[in-house]
Give the backbone structure.
Amino acid sequence: MLDILHREFVYIWYYFEVQLRQIVFYWALGIIIGSVISVFGKQKIHSLMTVIQDKHLGAFGIIPASLIGIASPLCMYGTIPIAASFSQKGMRDDYLAAFMMSSILLNPQLLIYSAALGNFALCVRFISCFLCGIAAGLVVRFCFKDKHFFNFDGFSERASHDTDPNPFMRLLKNIGRNIKATGPYFLLGILLSALFQRYVPQDAFASLFVNNRGFGLLMAATIGVPLYACGGGTIPLLQQWLADGMSMGSATAFMITGPATKITNLGALKIVLGIKHFAMYFAFVMLYALVSGFIVNLIA
C-alpha cells in the first residue's frame, strides 16, 4: 500500500514540477508588472476616464473605456468604488459598463499570466475581453438610454494600501500582497492540473471537448461558472486542456464566463445591479461567451 502511495506521489510531483517550471516565470512577471502599475500608474489610468467624459466622444468613448478597464489593476471590489466615484461626477452608464465589464474579465497581471498559453491564446483573450467591454457598453447605451443601469448608493472609493512614503517599499509591499492573494490559487491550479494529467483518461476528455465541438463549447462555458476562483489558478488547467485537445473556442468561453461569474465578482455586482439587471448581466455573459467561442472555433 505504501509503495502504491509513494509511486502515485512521485507521478503527481513530476507533473506538478514540470508545469510549475513552465509557467512560474509568467506568474512572477505578472505579479511584478501588476504591482508596478498598481503603485505607480493606477491613478493615471483612472484619471483617463475623466478625460474621456470631458471629450464628449459619444458612443466612441466606449472603446477607450473598455481599454482602460483592462489596464486597471483593481479587483471588482476595488473597481466598483472607483466606478461609483466616476458616476458621482456624471460619468455615463455606458462608459461605466464598458470599463467594469472589461475590468472584470482581464487585468495586466492576468494578461501576462495568459502568455503561458501561447501567443494565439493571449491575443484571443485580449480581443474577446476588449470586445466584451464594448458590447456591454453598447447594450447599456441603446437599451437603457434614458434609465439608470447602476445603483452605486453606499459605495465610496476605498483608501489605498500603498501609503508607504518610500516608493520602493510601496512596491515591495504591493508585490507581497499580490503573492499572498494569488499564490495559493496558482499552486492549487498546478496541483489540479497534475491530478488531471494523472487520473483523467485522455479519451474521456476528448469525448467531451474534442470530438463534439458544439457540446464542448457549452460545457466549457458552463464549468467556468463554478470552477473559476482565480485567474492565475486556471492557467495551468487551461494549458493542460489545450494540450489535450480542447478547442480554442471552448477555452475562450471558459475565459469569459469564469471571471465574469466568479463568486466574489457576482456578490459585488448584485449590489449595484439589482435582481433584474443582474439576471440580464448573467444572460449577456453566457450568450457572449458562446458566440465568441463559436467565432474563435471558425477562425481557428
Q: What stands out?
A: The chain has a mean pLDDT of 83. The chain has one domain: 2-299.
